Amino acid sequence: MQENQYEKIKLLFFKLIEETKELNETEFEKVLIQVFKENNSFSIEVKDRLIIDITNMRKKIVQNLNL
Description:
79% helix; 0% strand
């Protein structure tokens, strides 16, 4: 997967995070699992990288909301 494609996917997940920021961790995890189930085109490496990036983005958003 090219880097620009990865960045586009990351941006889509950022939008998903914004739309689901009121969910608790468990609820958000269920949404994330469903997204990955629906799209089998991600390699394991890309999934791992996305999960790390998504987790970090969500933590930052939730922390900013709690300030």
